[in-house]
Structures are given as C-alpha cells and as structure tokens.
Model the fold of this input.
Amino acid sequence: MATRIKILTSLAICAALVLVLLPFTAADGGGGAKGAAPFDYKKALHSSLLYFEAQRSGHLPHNQRVKWRGHSGLADGLQQGVDLVGGYYDAGDNVKFGLPMAFTVTMLSWSAMEFADDIAAAGEWRHVLEAIKWGTDYFVKAHTEPYVLWAEVGDGDTDHYCWQRPEDMTTSRQAYKVDSDNPGSDLVGETAAALAAASMVFRRSNPHYAQVLLHHAEQLFEFGDKYRGKYDSSIGEAYSYYASVSGYGDEMLWAALWLHRATGKASYLDYAVDMADEFGGTTWAITEFSWDVKYAGLQILATKVLLEGKHPEHKATLEKYKAKAEHYLCACLNKNGDAGNVNRTAGGMLFVRQWNNMQYVTNAAFLLTVYSRYLTSAGQELPVLQCPDGPGHADELRALGRAQTDYVLGANPAGVSYLVGFIGCMQGYDNWFLRRGSNPNVVVGAIVGGPDHLDRFRDRRDNYMQTEACTYNTAPMVGIFAHLHGETAITEKS
Done:
C-alpha cells in the first residue's frame, strides 16, 4: 500500500504569508526506505520552481503560473529616484534583503550549471532560467553606479508589525544602499558571485545578457575589494535580520572563484590564492554552509580547480582548500573523529541549529552531491576523501545527499513532507494568524524551517522557527531534485 505523507494544515510564517505543506506519496512504502520506490522528484522539482514565482516582487509577467500572487512593490526605489522594482521576498515578510537574495540566485545558478541536462530532461529548463533572471534583472538595476549597490528595500521592524499580503502592504519601502563611504563587501561579493554564476547559465541562450551580467559582476568585485567593510555595519536595519556573522572574507573569496570560473582570468584565481589565509579560506574549518557562511562552498569550488589539474602553480594552496572542504564533508559523513561532526537526529537529519535548520540540510545535500560528481570526474578508480575515521567514497556522499533530500520529502519519523506547497496589516493576524483551519493559498515548493533535534515539528503559525520557509532553503534543491529524477529514470530503464 502507498504511504500517504500527512498534510499539515496550519503552517504559517512570522510576518505575511500563510503556508500549508503539501503531501508527497511514495509509490511503495515511502521514499528512501530500503527496497521502496523513490519519491516523485520531478514533481518536487516542478513545485520548487513554482515557489520562486510565489516569492516574486514587482510587476508580474503574463505567464505567471501562481495566479493568486499579484503585482507588488511597484513604487520601490521611487523615494530615492531609482528603479528597484522586482526581485524576491526572502521568506514570509515583504522586505527585499539583498544578501540572502543574492545567495539564492547563486545557488539556483550553480544548480543550473551542474544539473543542466537533468533539468532540461525534466522539462523545467525555461522555468529555471526565468527564476534566475528574475533575480539578476533586479541586481543589475540595483547596481546603479560602479561603487553603489542598493542593498535592501523595506524595513524589517515596521514590516513585521503587520501581517499582510505584499499586494496590500502599507509599510515603509525605504531603500538602503552601500557605497564607497558605507561599504558592504559581503553583500557586494555575494552579488558579484550570483551574477558571475548566472552569466555562465545564459552564455549559450543569451550571450549579450550573459556579458552584461559579467560586466556588473566584475565591477562589483572591484567595489567590494577596494572599499572593504561589512554591510550590516553600514546598514543597521539589516543587522537584526541578516547579520553578516562570518564577515566579508568568505564572500570575496567566493566571488573570486566564481569569476575565475566564469572568465578564466588568472587574476581571480590569484586573488583566491593570495587572500586564502587572510580571508580564512584555508584556515577556517566549518561544518555549515548557508547564506552567511560560504566557506565550505568556496573550498569545494577551489578543490574543483585542483582536481582538474589546470593550475599546478597553485597546487600547495589548493591542497589546503581541499583539506578544509574535506573537513566539512567528513563532518557530514560522521567520520571527523575528534575534529567534530555535524549532529544528526535519530531520524537521520543533519542538525546544525534550532532556527530554520532545513537550510543547512538542503545546502548539505547539494554540496555532498556536487562534490561526489567532482571526485568521480577526476578519473580516479576509487575517488575518496581522507577523513580522520577512514576514507569517504563518492557513493557515500551521494547516498547521504539523497537521504537528506528524502528526509525533506517525507522519509522521516513524523512522515511529514517539509516541502510546502501560501495574506491588510493587523487584519491578517485577526482573520488568519489565529485560525486553526486550512490556509487560503498554498506556496507550493517552499521548504520550511523543519523539525528540532529530536525530529519534533510543531505545526503552528506562531512557530516560525520551524514553519517559516525561505528562498535559500529551496534554491539548492532545484538541482538535487532534477538530479535524483534523472537517476531514477535511468534506474527504471535498466
């Protein structure tokens, strides 16, 4: 008999939009269980891309598929004399926060590069391009001068006072920028990374647009390096919501490696090597990867360069990057010994912290899967990681990435899919927040914060630590869903 995943009917988020989790069914006994049929990864991919349409700000196109979402933020930037219409709301509020938005676009672009064939085979390539372009179009507009980047539209404090749909918002749309006097190298670096990564995605289908993105990426990198500083020191309004705890070193290294990959220019790789120690790339051993902490991701990018064997002059430094990348991967595999592992719940979920833990799960699933591909592509017979508790193989990385994905979709103790399928101001609280009934709209494809360290999930609108969904939770899963759908199709044919 098919196992039906429970439908959660009262999910919500802290500020504006109501969510409800959608059921996922495995064909036989639940996806991920031994001998069981897999989940419908194609449906998961399709849903995840619908989520980005639900999070759009601005004037919506005629082909918008999420019909209950309307135009919003059409005067954004007007007070400041700039056009800041567009972009994405990061989560359940109606603020456009630049740092998580840029990371979301970087991860969407990385997904598109690594899993292009799988995405195309699933019939979703056009929708992936549209999801990326909705973000990059906004970044190009927000980069109004070489040393100016508009960082945020809206204020979290006033926005969170209200609980209303973006179409109806009555809160402040103040816009905030970083510039040469008020730097923000972390935000600028991440935006440069997003545009560089996206330029590679559009290179074949829209070469002129790809070149525009690359031009802005290179200007932004120069801006971030020339005028160094944390963006949340320049924009106090961002500190309470998206503080840059890791600083800007990781984003600048991340941007340099993406620009090297996009342009092939030796100067960007030289930068990543020259600044490796000062910016922590070869000294920070990290067990998380997120919109704030990029070290594990950039260390894996640097390792890819090493595995390709193209720059022997930098081998010594790239080997140091590789050692730190393996620290993260071995920690996920629980093979790090005294060096420290990522905690796991009894149900098998990687657990980093209470608030929105699922972002670390989805990002880990992505890095594990991508690195397994890099190892396999390196041409070794038995590609391995050198972990303190024994070697780690590429197939172990793939298996753990798939297990984390299946946990999200329903292979967990609660039997719940954490992939969701989405309300003026105080009336939102009065009419919907305290209701126990079903939600009027569903944000298909959103991934909520997820359960605690004991696999417990409390399905309440006021439990936003677990029930709020964010764009950067779903972005890395676009590629993974496509990849697993492709793998499943091959297995079924054989």
